[in-house]
Give the backbone structure.
Amino acid sequence: MTVELPESKAGGTLPAEFCTRPGPNPYPSYAAAREQSPVHPIDYPNPAEAYVVTDYETVVQAFTDPRLSKSVDNAPGFFRDALRESSPVLIKNMLTSDPPKHTRLRKLLGNAFVPRRLKLLRPRVQEITDDLIDALPETGVVDLYNDFALPLPMRVICEFLGVPPEDRDVLHDWGMVLSNAPYADEEGNRRLKEASEGIESYLLAHMSARRADPREDLTSVVLRSADEEGGGYTDDEIVSTLVLLVIAGHKTTSNLIGNGTQALLRHPEQFRLLLDRPELVTTAIEEFLRYEGPVYRAPQRFASEDMDIAGHPVGRNSVVHLMLNSANRDPAVFEDPDRLDITRKPNRHLSFGYSVHFCPGAPLSRVEGDVAFTTLLRRLPGLRLAVPDDQVPWRYDNSASRGVERLPITYDRRLPR
Ligand code: HEM
């Protein structure tokens, strides 16, 4: 659904859907909003003042403005209460804190995504990818999102954390519930509470096991960092960090694979170029991240004081949404921004955020994307959409994730690994 912009003066109020339901092609309405003004008030469904920021330059400035806080202490009351009551495990990590607390919590991941560790993990990413492709039929129609893109990153992060295969499904289910928080209804909040308690007690037990018997997995690395940084970290903070790893790296990376494949199959000349020159996969991944970003808006910021953004007054406790996928199509920064160009360089997209909260898992998702795209193209000759591209449904949720909901594809045959 494309959101029609109201006929309004610069910076006029936008309908809530502009932010909550971007639809299959939000880009014309993003362009219209950007042309009107970098900042718009938005008709928020909850009792709060809220704004969206649409252009590249103002989004970058907002990312670096210390008055825009990630801490729920600065959130409007309804938001704070909903999260504190239903899921304390979601709000004790770096994603929901500001420096200096953020700096301290982020140190827990100081040794997590270093090149040496990713090099060790890569052969396992390849095996997991090949196992998933082996499980596809020899021919026929397949939902590449649900049968490949969705399970791949969850298996990888479970492997990386040292979670045994038999526990992956339950972790997957808890992660899906947590990543949609906060919920507006009682049933949603009941499931959120259940998932929070389930994942918390599971990870506490997993941490105890690794404290008694440290290994080379990510859980042991985080525990070791906690000791090396002089201790002082509570188990709550460590559990919340592990929970964040489970949810932050899941649908985001699934969307990179799902959205990227869909974009490629809609552009046959770009698809042919990647088949002919597989080494372009590195720039192709950056272009998929820009062109159909997996996280369409950054997790919300809250104004910690009365302030202005690009000249627009923003009251204390306002919710501020930085529209990444709009900034990624800003013609002031990207030449011909609506064109998919897998050779695009430089490509300073904002899909992993910017500044202190910049995604620490970016190197891992790039490895997963590299292995996934390279292997799909090699093992499934004749890969193509099985439905017209305007019939591919899109999904968006509270976590600001935007991706295809199903991706029906077919291929001529499935080649061995
Ligand atoms: C294509 C895949 C991914 C995308 C598009 C993505 C996107 C993002 C974005 C936009 C942020 C910044 C949030 C903000 O400024 O508020 C972020 C933060 C974060 N991401 Fe990712 N991410 C991806 C994969 C991963 C993976 C694989 C992991 C780890 C397993 C991960 C872990 C994190 C963590 C821990 C943070 C919080 C950083 C902080 O607050 O300092 N992400 N990610």
Q: What stands out?
A: Residues 94-95, 106, 157, 244-245, 248-249, 252-253, 256, 294-295, 298-299, 351-353, 357, 359-361, 364-365 surround protoporphyrin IX containing FE (CB under 6 Å).
